[in-house]
Amino acid sequence: MTSTIRSGAGACGGACEPPNGAATAAPRGSLRRPAELTRNVDVSGLVDSEGGLLDRAIFTDEDLYKQELRRVFAPSWLFLAHTDQFRRPGDFFTTYMGEDPIIVTMDKSRRIRAYLNSCRHRGARVCRADFGATRNFTCTYHGWAYDLEGALVSVPNKDGYPESFDAKDWGLVEVPHVETYHGLIFGTWNPAPLSLRESLGDMAWYMDAMLDHDDEGTVVVGGVHKWVLEGNWKLSAEQFATDWYHVNMSHASALTVLSPSGKAPRDEIVHRTGRQYVDPRGHGAGFPVHPKNRFDARTVHEWMDYDALRERLGDARVEGPLTTGHATVFPNFSYLPVNGSIRIWHPKGPDAMEVWAWTIVDKSMPDEVREAQRLYNLRTFGPSGIFEQDDGENWSEVQAISRGFITNGVALNYQMGMGSEREDGRHPGTTSELYSDAAGRAFYGHWRDLMNTPAWHEEKR
């Protein structure tokens, strides 16, 4: 299910007339930024997705990181929040699109809208809370205030401005397109994007295995957990798209903890078979396939009606991506179906990221089942979860040594599963083996293509 919550003025770019006092990607007026400030690098030689090789400079170079913000994040659909976080007008949640601070809110007409969290006067944030409810967003620097529709509604000492000053010209900069898919809210700065559903393509089939269990949809439990890691954001996004290979080594101790006391994990757990979805737009999902796939939390497993899920979703989804697996929606939204974890990898420079994670559950779940899923997620993939700690250590280790002169010049190998990509007749789109780098190669191939393609804001006006 896709719905458009708020649309901007289409292909008119930064010169659009602002709706209801808000401004779309703001025109620079008579200001002209010199080209030297936005030089772009041809990255063709850094990603060999066909040969399965990667140059580590894509994780460490500051200029490439700035180019990512311009050409990867600015044009892409980026995850913002869950619809359950907005129940009445004035509810808001603050987040980021790339490194741009964003307010997501419900306006008086109950539409979800998103604005750049920056005052048009001197640029301070107009909302410093993580979430809450309000009638207006007021800058604490000089007092400029904006309503829920983004319009500038209060200017202290307004008489001191020239007659040419018109408050209608100085509303909050609005994200021109905001759409939802099964409760997940995404936004893009692109004034004329593909629709969210079209951008997801076949990935939507795999997402539905987590999001579309019944007509009631999903809700958030337990708030949003946030933590900071050393490591480039692509390391985590890539792993969730493509990497089951690390599980048996990196998570050996966690698997032992979850096994019967004093016993190693069963062989059928260690040596799983499954598939990996490979998307040309950089999305990816991996999942074991077994007719008895189940949810790990016992209370959740016992509550689930697997027959009803088979009727709604089909055998292929129930036996595959419904439960244990991993996935990334390009560029930086990932999820884990078995424990209801959704997360965003916010970039904070080439060497750091902030992880923001939610637990979502079926709205039809009774309270005790919701709590069981929340606790299971917290214990496994929360900030101190037994799996999450392993992953963070790996990403930080990779980043810690990648700036060495010799180290940075040694290519990385992404060749597992080369040639195994095919249409398997059971799962939509192209799939590879469970143990494969295929989705990783596609992820970096799409990243390379975006990095080498002028974005909407680079068009001559």
UniProtKB/TrEMBL annotation:
<dbReference type="InterPro" id="IPR015881">
    <property type="entry name" value="ARHD_Rieske_2Fe_2S"/>
</dbReference>
<keyword id="KW-0520">NAD</keyword>
<keyword id="KW-0560">Oxidoreductase</keyword>
<comment type="similarity">
    <text>Belongs to the bacterial ring-hydroxylating dioxygenase alpha subunit family.</text>
</comment>
<dbReference type="GO" id="GO:0051213">
    <property type="term" value="F:dioxygenase activity"/>
</dbReference>
<dbReference type="InterPro" id="IPR017941">
    <property type="entry name" value="Rieske_2Fe-2S"/>
</dbReference>
<keyword id="KW-0408">Iron</keyword>
<feature type="domain" description="Rieske">
    <location>
        <begin position="77"/>
        <end position="175"/>
    </location>
</feature>
<keyword id="KW-0058">Aromatic hydrocarbons catabolism</keyword>
<dbReference type="InterPro" id="IPR036922">
    <property type="entry name" value="Rieske_2Fe-2S_sf"/>
</dbReference>
<dbReference type="GO" id="GO:0051537">
    <property type="term" value="F:2 iron, 2 sulfur cluster binding"/>
</dbReference>
<feature type="region of interest" description="Disordered">
    <location>
        <begin position="1"/>
        <end position="29"/>
    </location>
</feature>
<dbReference type="GO" id="GO:0004497">
    <property type="term" value="F:monooxygenase activity"/>
</dbReference>
<dbReference type="Pfam" id="PF00355">
    <property type="entry name" value="Rieske"/>
</dbReference>
<feature type="compositionally biased region" description="Low complexity">
    <location>
        <begin position="14"/>
        <end position="23"/>
    </location>
</feature>
<dbReference type="GO" id="GO:0005506">
    <property type="term" value="F:iron ion binding"/>
</dbReference>
<dbReference type="InterPro" id="IPR015879">
    <property type="entry name" value="Ring_hydroxy_dOase_asu_C_dom"/>
</dbReference>
<keyword id="KW-0479">Metal-binding</keyword>
<dbReference type="InterPro" id="IPR001663">
    <property type="entry name" value="Rng_hydr_dOase-A"/>
</dbReference>
<keyword id="KW-0411">Iron-sulfur</keyword>
<protein>
    <submittedName>
        <fullName>Biphenyl 2,3-dioxygenase alpha subunit</fullName>
    </submittedName>
</protein>
<keyword id="KW-0001">2Fe-2S</keyword>
<dbReference type="InterPro" id="IPR043266">
    <property type="entry name" value="RHO_NdoB-like_C"/>
</dbReference>
<dbReference type="GO" id="GO:0016705">
    <property type="term" value="F:oxidoreductase activity, acting on paired donors, with incorporation or reduction of molecular oxygen"/>
</dbReference>
<dbReference type="Pfam" id="PF00848">
    <property type="entry name" value="Ring_hydroxyl_A"/>
</dbReference>
<keyword id="KW-0223">Dioxygenase</keyword>
